[in-house]
Amino acid sequence: MQSANFRICAKTSKLRMMTITAMFALLGLGMSHVTQGEPIAGGVPAERIAHWAKHLPPQPSGVGVPISRRDVWDVFARDKDFRSVIGQAEDELKRPLPRRPTNFI
């Protein structure tokens, strides 16, 4: 049973690595045509700053739900399927990433 579990984990790990690789490849393709514009003499006009500022949230924030939103995280803590995720993540952090050949990507 442990052997089957290891194969499933190994396949999941390979799939995760392939997904991450594909994401970076697509990001590279998407960014390959972007060029940096010339600096604007005298700085950025105030109306241009105001235009983009209205699209930003009042306070900067990261990705996902902040830890301060305990109501959201408490729901996860009560979910029996989610309880083991933190332990699994901590176990993953203890394992070094496998070495890959330089021509892997």
Task: Characterise this structure.
The chain is mostly helical and 105 residues long. Helix content is 54%, strand content 0%. It contains 4 helices and no strands.
Terminal residue distance? 32 Å
- Going by helix content, strand content and strand pairing, the class is mainly alpha
Low-confidence region ranges: none
Percent in helix: 40-55%
The overall pLDDT average reads: 78
Apparent shape = flat
**Largest beta-sheet details:** none
Helix/strand order: HHHH
Number of helices: 4
> What is the CA-based Rg, rounded?
22 Å
What proportion strand?
under 5%
Beta-strand segment tally: 0
Which tags fit this structure?
105 residues, mainly alpha
Please sum up the structure shown.
It contains four helices and no strands. It has helices at 2-31, 46-53, 70-78, 85-94.
